[in-house]
Structure formats: structure tokens, C-alpha cells
Amino acid sequence: MARRSTADPLDGPDPLGGTGPSDDPGPLADADPLAGFAPATRAWFTGAFSAPTRAQAEAWAAIGRGTDVLVVAPTGSGKTLAAFLSALDRLSHTPPPADPKRRCRVLYISPIKALAVDVERNLRAPLAGLRQAAVRLGLPEPEVQVGIRSGDTPPADRRRFATHPPDILITTPESLFLLLTSASREALRGIDTVILDEVHAVAGTKRGAHLALSLERLDELLERPARRIGLSATVRPVDEVARFLSPRRGAAIVQPPSAKEFDLSVVVPVADLDDLPADGAADPSGAPPGGRGGASIWPHVEERIADLVQSHRSTIVFANSRRLAERLCNRLNEIAVERATGTALPEAHAPAQLMGGSGAAGGAPPVIARAHHGSVSKEQRALVEEELKAGRLPAVVATSSLELGIDMGAVDLVVQVESPPSVASGLQRVGRAGHQVGAVSTGVVFPKYRGDLVQSAVVTERMRAGLIEALRVPRNPLDVLAQQLVAITALDTWDVDELLALVRRAAPFATLPQSAFDGVLDMLAGRYPSDAFAELRPRLVWDRVAGTVTGRPGAQRLAVTSGGTIPDRGLFGVFIAGADPKKGGGQQEGQREALPKKGGGGRRVGELDEEMVYESRVGDVFTLGTTSWRIQEITHDKVLVVPAPGVPGRLPFWKGDSLGRPLELGRALGAFVRELGSLAPEQAAERLRRAGLDEWAASNLLGYLDDQRTACGHLPDDRTIVVERFRDELGDWRIVIHSPFGAQVHAPWALALGARLREKHGLDPQVMHADDGIVLRLPDADLLDFPAEFTAGFPPGHLAERPAPDEAPVGADAALFDSGEIEQLVTDQVGGSALFAARFRECAGRALLLPRRSPGRRTPLWQQRQRASQLLEVAAGYGSFPIVLEAVRECLQDVFDVPGLVELMGDLESRAVRLVEVTTPEPSPFARSLLFGYVAQFLYEGDSPLAERRAAALSLDSRLLSELLGQAELRELLDPAVLAELAAELQRLTPDRRIKDTEGVADALRLLGPLSTAELAARGADPAWAAGLRDARRTIEVRIGGELHWAAIEDAGRLRDALGTPLPVGVPEAFTEPVKDPLGDLLARYARTHGPFTAAEAADRFGLGTAVVTGTLHRLAAGGRLVQGEFRPGEGHTGAVEWCDAEVLRRLRRRSLAALRQEVEAVPPRALAAFLPQWQHLGGHRLRGPDGLLRVVEQLQGTSVPASALEKLVLPARLTGYTPGMLDELTAAGEISWSGAGALAGRDGWVSLHLPDSAHLLRPEPVPPALTPVHTALLDALAGGYGLFFRQLTDHVPDTPVPDLVEALWDLVWAGYVTNDTLAPLRALLGSGRTAGATAHRAPRSAPRARYGGVGRGPVRPAGALRSGPPTAAGRWSLLPEFAADPTVRAAAQAQSLLDRHGVLTRGAVAAERVPGGFAGVYRVLSAFEERGRARRGYFVEGLGGAQFAMDGAADRLRSVSGRLERGTAAEWPGTAAGEPPQVLVLAAADPANAYGAALPWPDPPAAADAKPAAGHRPGRKAGALVVLVDGAPALYVERGGKTLLAWSEQPAAVEALAAAVREGALGATVTIERTNGEPALGSALGRVLEAAGFHPTPRGLRLRG
């Protein structure tokens, strides 16, 4: 058997075959590294490998000495086997312990689940080899079991682990945390070795701090601490990582010299990035950074990458974002398809660089590439990995998800699009290629624009030299500490000092101050007011006298369900609809294990950003993981999809952030620029070639630097900062600070700079920081040059200080800060920044202060932000609140590089770094690059409405409070029963809130304040429970108002300072510290737990004087916490000033309104009739263009209108300038479809328009006709799912006469089975009729076109004999889509459509639309809409019943219309004012905008002149009929054909509107009105009005031609 090098079966592509060179073992060559192993182990290794690598030999020597070991070696050096082989050797020849629960002796921890699975799979080879070697040597065959525990582990395997653990457990940090916080921890007591892989990936993060505490908790379980073996890629400083791994014992560091070779190049695919070829695709986001044209670099990059992929066997393409990975992957596949077929795909895609929103994919199959990132499901990622390893997939486009040590097989090329985010990241990524020992790793970097070239060159050069960035272990992250303390104490009682000692044993907490530890315990023990924010309630009990800490009930569940350190970004899970939920995917990387779920979606596809989902609709197609998916349903926490192969779809986007360039890399980049600037052009080009840049990359970079030097005269480098000033397109000043030192320095600098400009100059600048500098925009800066009349009194010297009109008002000196003051300035400003708010939310989540409402289900990001904001309002009053301190620490230490900024300011002071100031007529090349990021930041910041929504919500609350303040009428609005019910709930007197145990007593005293024994008993408490809490030093017994009360010990200082209450002996000092506002706290809590009260009632409760209490209540009201007024209904309270907590009052008002919503003041029915046309865009609200037509169809879909009225009345009434061609254009494009819904007399019929995505949900149900063989043959012909022309249909029914075939076809149309891709045949059908119905709404015929025939051509063929068929059969015919199978989905869509169409939905409106099941069928859905806030229920319109539903805003508009009607104006018409003419509308009687005959009954027929009602003529929603509304009231009704007219009003405006409609052909070519209100039209009073409007008398009646 040929030997091979240790291309580590746990690192290499083939654990049993292949050859390769070994590292030079150096001085260890004389010693046998395998001497310490058992014979079977030596036999297997020497048979499988030629020799150990140096890393393995030195690691085994260190492990053999029994110490902790840190092995630092590059990818592919065999370090994983180095750690495992000694453990496998020991396990294979040592019998397992007698106790099966102690069998697990080796714990392997991987930071990512994919790596854990990879290691488990690759362990099979050495295990099998050891067994075979033992058999050959006649030794007992070892049975070493390996198990995995992660979020994807089935529940049955988790339960088995507790009783039968394997020898080796492979897990993740989060799963280890869960094991330690459950009964399964007993199965970990036998562990003696812990292997921590990829330690460099976690050591510098809070996830690493969390893991460090978990490892100390594990050691606490064991008889002696486990030996730790850490595996790391190249890392710096090594000592810091070794301290993280083994802070107490010290780890032996194994770091042999690296022989890893890299072949790196920086490639630019065009000659000049600033003058891109014109054939590049247009960039929809504007000119590319640094470029002047509209072309884009991306098509050229995509083509070059496709060339590289197709010329290599296996390629990984790395992108810096999930969004770019998806887009680039789709473009590579599109290019492959285009090359294979020779046909270009439609230009539906956007270039890959589009940075905001979602683009589109062309629907190309995954020919050469598939996407791999954290938002793709684990199953999809595993499939992609396997296909790449097996050589079936040429390329994978990935993010950092493939960066860590997963074995990807024989990858021969890595492509990096954009500069790697760091040197360490670049090494990890390029290390995926040549993953074998001694192999060369080949990488190609494609910069995205000229500014990216500099960093690409520097990073690749530092990669070759191994100059990675320094790693820093977080110090004392208090949010992680809080979470772990809850978990540690959930199962055991701990001595406080021992607990602190345990925490300090972990490296991140080695310097944890006692005060910080006590502060976190205080927070968790309920020190802060949980009645103001519920999640501040105690999670543990801290007995300060005994010095013990114990978890409270529920603490374990809280830690298990909400633990972990990865921020919850509210992503939506994407699942396949209808699949088996038991086969659903696991969590994404770093998430906690999920609790078992009941029901749910099917197999997991991946996850989408919340904003992406909010912008999506059911029926949309998007691409995820190179597969197209159609959205079937969007719930509150998941998106259900079905595959849509080959269908073009939107490309998703995800919002994320990164820390930016570190200072160390920034200094290197500046030094590189300085070096290039000092060289001659030839030398500089040679220098760049040595750095790995190709000719075009080098020429572009040198040209970029030359252009910058020409524009500014200086290059920004590590010794020069350039401040550039210029005016933008609006004339505002822009100031650009060019600096290479990176975003971690620039971010705090920008924060301080913005604060200075606001304070010193009164400006409100827009400041944006980036890796390459800072951009300031000074809006209206010229306003600082005040007019002379405002400066007349100024001292002369001050006027001289004003800037000249062509000079920026802020100079470079504004950017300079005292190095001794800048740190404090940044610290002062960070608390008001958006960064702090975001970090506070994440820290609060880690500290379990924002737990998941429903474990296993997503919490929307906006809800997290809202809850975090509420918590911050409470915490802001406490300067020592641990999570506020932690958020500030994280900003200053982990995000910002404040020491680096201080150092930079010192260098500026000492002139080690100079500051150069220039003014330019236009932005320099460097400035254009920065401005591109500036535009993107503010452009897409506006796309995120959360901040605006929150501000709007707060402003609404403040207006509500000001409205309620002092309003006596609230007494009439608040329901007495509601008030009594809420008061009982607040006081925990309802059955569901009764006290059930000792902890319930503690909660009641904490939430309600001091209670007497009788009051506790009234709430269900046993008197002994309070006494037990007193013995545990958790409650005290005090006298308040002359009566004994039980109080929570946390209230001791508050009661003493506010009431002068004597405290019992033995209260810990922590609870007797002075309280800032003791009486305010007591009264605020009293208000939160009571309904409205008087000052006398509160004073009596606390035994105080009324005046003292009143003063404090006024102070609380001034702060917005209380509201003053008269609230309680009924007698006995009149005249007394009452107080109520603002939130309690809101709850009272909401509940009262819900209870009284049937009695809300309703509007007259006429207001609904005037409102409905507005809501549907008629009259002055008409829409325009194709988009307007789509909106009209969206609102009308699902309802039917007469075909004869559709294009003469219904659509023109809603669209300005409507023409049939507009509808034809959209139907031909597939944007609109139509269907029949029943035939009418005279070739007319009911038709319905739909958007194709919802046609299967909303179109009217088919009416099965009496099928004949012709009907059946037509249906069979169309069953293939494609459209056929009439001549093709005749081929399927060859023996049927054309007229019969056309008639059968239209039978199927009116029955709702068949449709056409145009409305031309429908128009032809309507125009061919000869009955009144056929001409009901026909336009006058145009003059016939002359036909010209040549001599000898014979007679003209009749139209019916054309091979293409008659005009009534023109176009392409097809079957309508089948109905959605789920009636619930159809009902929900129908209800939403009804609400959208009517705004205010009533029983009559539903009945008029012939909805299946009637009002009862949609009532349940509408009720569910109300519960979810999508609709409101109330008594909105008089006389229409209580079951009325309205969309948001519709009820208010309805009331607004009613108010204007009462004031004599119609509605919200532009320019309408009191006294203007009434608003007149002419509608088809069957138009959905006509409320009469639907939501409203028709008025009685008007009486004739003889006072008798018009006999035989009643209005109705009939095809062909017209109704004229005046301010919502019916004025005229014209029967079909126009022979009869009903008139409720003889207003000339109404008659003139009718005449205008007749002239436009609304009732046919000629209309003769014979009778009005049942009497002859000639000679009637109304007849004279008609004549005045243009009707002419004839013997038959009054005639008007169209």
C-alpha cells in the first residue's frame, strides 16, 4: 500500500489515498514522534502516511507531557489529526468506564456545525484503520463511538445521549451551553480532553467569552479539569490566544515555521476603470465609484470569473456579502447558459454591484455555480459542499460560510471579489485552495473599483508575509456574564464568592471587578423596577446575608430558549409549503437549539431579511441558493414557498454591517501609498507587479494615484491627511477628510466632529464615515453669512471672522481635537448614536432581558427595537445599569478603536502626521469613491422606515396624552365594567392571577408594593409563605399607616426614605442605600397597579398628608408618567381631581372603545355612497398610465362588471385618458388576465379582470355549462396548458361549422373556463350584436375602411371564411388557471380583496358580489383580520348592521366625507370649497363604486307629477343601466337602452352629466328617452330640463345622438 503524507484525513480530501510531500520535521527527525502510541495506532499511521508533519510531531510531544496545547498552523497542515490521534489511541486501548454515563471522555467543539459534521465524517477513516490494524496484530478490536450534538440533532438522539453518551462528542459552543444547563450535563462528567477547533474564530468575540465560561462550568463538573487542546490557523498574538485557551495552567504553544505557499494575483479585466467600455451593462445605481460614465465594471468581472471557472476543475468564489453572492452566482449561470446556447438571456438582471434592494435573476439553472452562505439552509449547503467535493459542481459562490476549516476537497482556485475584509480572512479563504500539505494555494482578487485596488494590493502582499491583524479578547462582557449566571444558578445554589471565582477563571473575565459582578447580580435579582419593564423581574435570588445565589423558577427555560450570543436579526425562515414538517431544517449557524415544534412548515430552504419579506407578496418569485421559489404564504414568522424552476425571480438582499478596516491595516495601506508616491513610474509599476498586480491592475492603480495627486496636490497616506472641500450639485459645501486609517478610527472621529459642528457652529451636518475617510455635508452653510441688518450691532472684529462666500465655513482645524479630550468626548456622544441603540438591543438580548416571546419562533426586528427602546427608557435613569455600561464598552472597545484615534490626534499634534487643506472645483477621484458610499448610505437609510415609524408612534402618543389631559368627557367614554375588570387585574385579584406559591408572594410584593396579611390572603396566599420569605431574608415586615405590611426587601430603602418607616435589624446594606426619588417610585408603582385614583386615596394608603402626595403627583404628571383629569364614571366622583397612569389610561380607553364600538357615532348612508367612488379612484381621484391601470385592476379583481360597460364606463371613470390599447398592452404582456362570469342577453356578459398571480384565488367560480361534444373537444384541445389560435382549434374539431365552434367557445368563456390573451374578440362580440343589450354601452361605429382589390384577384373572401377565424375568435385562447385547492387561502384572499375594493365592508356589499358562502363565508376571516390589526370592526354606517369592517384609514376618510357633506361640499376633491357646485358622477349601475343596490338599498322610485309612484320601473344593478350621483345621492337612473328614466332630482348638473355621457356613447349610438318617472317624457317638467341639456323632441320621445 503506497504511503501518503498526513494530508490529514480530518483536513484532506481523501482519508485513504493520494500522495504528497511532508513538512520537514526539522530537529525532531531523530526522535520517533509515534513512540508514545500503541502498536495498532503506529501500524495504522505508518501504513497510511509517509511521515508526520512537523506540526503533528511537535503537538504529540506536547500532548504527551500532559499539558494544555495550542497548535497554530496554516490550513492543510494536519493539525486536526494531531489533536485527535492521541485521544483515539488512548480510547482504543483503554476500556470504557463501568458507569455508562462516564463513557464520554473526549469533547470536540467546533464553531460551525458544518465543520463538526465534516470532522465526524472524516473520523471514520482512522477509526476503521485502527480497528483493522488491531485485528491484524491480534489485539482486541476497539469500539470507539462518535456522536454529534447540535441544533440539528433529532430529539431521540438527544435523549439517548443523557443515558448512553459516546466516547467522543462533537458539538458546538451553543449546544455545550445547553448541555450544561440541563440534566444531560451528567453525561459530561467523564470528559478528560477538550479539543477546541478554529479557536482563532471565536477568541476575539463575545461568542468566545460565552464559550470560555462554558468550559469553566464544564471543569467545575469534573473531578479534575479537562486537558484543552486548541487548534488555530495563523493568529497574532499567539500568547493572547493561548491565554484564552488555558488561562490558569498555561498552554504549550506549538507553532512550527509555516511552509505554506500562496500564488496570489490582483486582476482588473479592463484597461481603464475610469473609462469603461461602452458595451458594459448600464449601472442602475449611478456611475461607478471613480468612474465618469454610466457603464459598469461588473459584466467584465463576471465574464472573466466565468472564464476562470471553466478553465479550472474546482473553484470557490468568495464575496463579502450574501446579496452579492446570490447575484454573482446567478450571473455566472446566466453566462454559462448564454455560452452554451449562443443566445443571450433577456436583460432582466441588474449588475451584481447594485447595493440596495433586490435585483432580478434570469431564471438560469445552476449550470456551473451554486450559492453557499448562512441564509441558505443546512441541507442545501451540505448538498453544495458534496457536489463540489465530488467534482460535479465546477464552482461555489460563498461568503465567510466556507471560510473556516471545512474540507472542500481538491479546490484548485479561489476567486475573491472585492478586497478581502482582512488579511486573516484572506488567508483563510485562499487556503481553501491547495488544502493539502505542501500544496500551493492559488487566489485571484478582483477589485470592484479603483479605490478598491489599493486595499487589494496591500492585503494580498500582507497575506504572503503572514502579517495578519492582531486579535483582542473581549474584556468583561457583562451581557454574556448575565446570561451565564442565570444558566449556572438555574440548577444549583452557589456561594457568591465561589461563583465569582468560577467566572474569573475564564480569560475574558480574569479582571472582572467585584462591583461589576455585583451590579449584574443586582440586575438579575430584581434591583431595578420590573413593574416599569416586565423583563427586569428577578431571574435569581441573591441572599446577601448567607452569600448564596439560587435560580428562580423559569430561569432554566429562559436560558435554554433565549441563550446564545449571535444577535437575533428577526430573519424569516423559508420553508417548502406542504412538506413534512418533521424533516424541517435546523437552525442557522450560531443559533441556539430549537425546542420541539408542533406543526410548522416543511423542509427549510433558508432565511430572508425582514425588509425583503415586507417588500414581497404572495405569488412573488425570488431566488435563493440558485433556485427559484414562488411565495405561497407569508406568516408572522415564516415564508412558505414552492419551487419555480426556470422562472425569473427577484434576488434577495440582507441588511448587515461590518467593523471596517482596522488601524493596523490602515497604517500599512498608508505606508504603501506613500511608498508608491515616492517612486518613479517605472519603479512603481515594478513594485506593483511584485505585489501581484497584473498589468491593467497596476496601470489603473498608478493612474488613480496620479489623478488624485493632480486634483489635490497631495496623496493621503500614513503621514498625510488631506481635507478636501468643494460644493456639490445643490451648492452645499462638502468636506472630505481623506485618511487611510480605517472605519474603526473614523467612526468615533466622525461622531466627535458632528458634535463639535453642532455645538460650535450651530450646524446640523450629515456625517458619514468609511474606511478611506469621512464625508461631511453642510446644508445651508451660507446662512452663516448673516445679512447686514443682522450684523449691525456686532463688534467689527467678529465680522472679519465670517467666511467669504466662496470659502467653506468650516476649516480643517475643526477636525483637530486635543488628544487628551477626544476619548471623553466620544464617550459622551456615543450614548446618543444609532450605533449605541443597536448595540444596546443586542446586549439586552444576550443578557436575557429581551427573551423570545415564543421559543422557536422569530421575533420581528421592529418589535425587538421597540422593546429595547422601552428598556432603555427605564435603564437610562440608572447610571450603573450593567447593560448600558456594556453597550458603551462594546462601542468604545469592540467597534471603535478609541486608543487608535487618541494616538492619531497625538500624531497630528506632534506633526508626525500632517494635515493638508485644499479646495477643489469638483470632487477628486478619492472623494468620488467616498461619495458613492455616502449616497448609498443615505439612500438606503431612507428605505428603512423603522426609525420614522417609531418617531411617528411616539408623536401620536404625546398627542393622545395632551388630548386626554384634563378632559372631563373621558368619564363618559370609560366603561365602568371595564374599569372594574382592569383594576382587579392590576391588583392580581382575578382568578387567573391568584398567588399559587412562595415565589408568587415575592412577585406580588415586588409588583404591587407592600401588602398586609389580609391582602395577601385575598389574593390566594398562605400566610406562612410570606413568613418563609422573611426567614430567607427576601421580605421584611414593616408598619405603614399604622398597619403591618409585608414588603419586598428591595423596597427597604425606598420605604425608609419616603415614609420614614423603621426597618428591621439585619437588612443588607445594598438595600438601604439612598434612593433618588423614593416617594415618586412608590406613587408611580401605586398608579401602575390601580385604576384612576385621587390624591387622598394614595395618601391614605401610605399614611401621608394629601399635600405631600399631590406635589409628587404633579411632578410625575409633568414628566408624562401620570395624567390628571376626571375619569371614573358614575356618581360619587364628580368634581374630584383624579390621577391615572398614562399606560393604564391607554388600556382603559382601548378596552372601553372595544366594548362600546357598537355605539360609535355612525355616518349617514349617503356618506358611504359618496366615499366609495373616491376610494375606487373615480372623479377627481383618477389614476394615470399603465401603473394606474394595474392598481385599478388590483382593486377590481374578484368582482364582475358587464362587458359592455367595462371599457366605456368602468375603466375610463378611473383612468385619465384610458384607451383600449392600454389594456391590450398589459394583457399581451401577461400582466392582466380576464375571465367570463356568466352570459347576458344580446351577446353581453359579466367579465372579471385579475392580476395573474391572484387569478386562481379571486376569479369567480366557473358555472358548468351543458357540455356538448364540441365543448368537450375544445377543453381537451386546450388541456395542454398552452394557448391556441382559432385555426389551431379548428384542427382539433375539424367537422364543426365555424359559427357553431365560435358559439361553443364563447359558452366556455362565459362559463369561466376559457380566456384570451386580448380583449379584441370580446369587443368584436359586443359590436356584432343587434339587440339592446349588445349596444347598451357601444360607441358609435367608425366609418368602414375601404377595401382595395387588384384586377383579376377575384371577390374578397368573407371574414368568416378566413383561415384565422372571425374577429370574435381572434387571439390566443387558453384555459384559466385552476382554483387554489385550499378554501382558507381563497377566503383570506377574497376578504382582503373585498376590503381593498370597498374600504368599509358591509353585509350588503358582500352579498351583491355573489361571494361563495356569502357574508358568513368571509366573516371569520374578517374577524381574524381584526385580531391581527389588518381591519377594524365597528358601526360605521347607519342602518347597515353592526358587522362592518374597515381598512386602516378608510373609516377616517368616511367620516371626513360625511363632515364635508354636512358642510355642503362633496368630498376631498382638489380645490373644492364651500359654495362650489356639487360633485356629479355618471356610473354604470353595476359598477362596484355604486353603493346602491349593494351596501345601500335603492331609494323608492320617484313619484310622477300626479304624486303616484312610477309603476313598473324600479332601479337595479342591471347591465346597460346608468346612475347619476350628486354628492353621493342618486339623482337619475336610466334603464338599459335608455327608454325610461327615473329622476329623484331635476338638478341641471345631473342632467348635463347624463347628456355628456350619452354623447360619449355610454348608452349606444342613439338614445331616445320615452318615459320619465312613469309618464311621457315629452311635456314633463324633467323633459324641459333634458331639452335644455341637448335632447331633441321626436314623436317617440327625447332623442340624443352619441
Notes on the structure:
- Residues 60-253 form the Helicase ATP-binding domain.
- The protein has 1602 residues and is α/β, with parallel strands linked by helices.
- Among the domains are: 26-254, Rossmann fold (3-Layer(aba) Sandwich), CATH 3.40.50; 261-465, Rossmann fold (3-Layer(aba) Sandwich), CATH 3.40.50.300; 481-565, no CATH class; 572-650, no CATH class; 1165-1340 and 1359-1434, no CATH class; 1498-1601.
- The chain has 58 helices and 53 strands.
- A seven-stranded parallel beta sheet has the order 3-4-2-5-6-1-7, with helices on both faces. A six-stranded parallel beta sheet has the order 8-14-13-9-12-11, with helices on both faces. It has a six-stranded mixed beta sheet with strand order 45-46-47-48-50-51.
- Strand 50 (1571-1572) and strand 51 form a beta hairpin.
- Helix 7 packs across helix 9 (206-221), helix 22 crosses helix 23 and helix 39 (1052-1059) crosses helix 40 (1078-1088).
- The chain is globular.
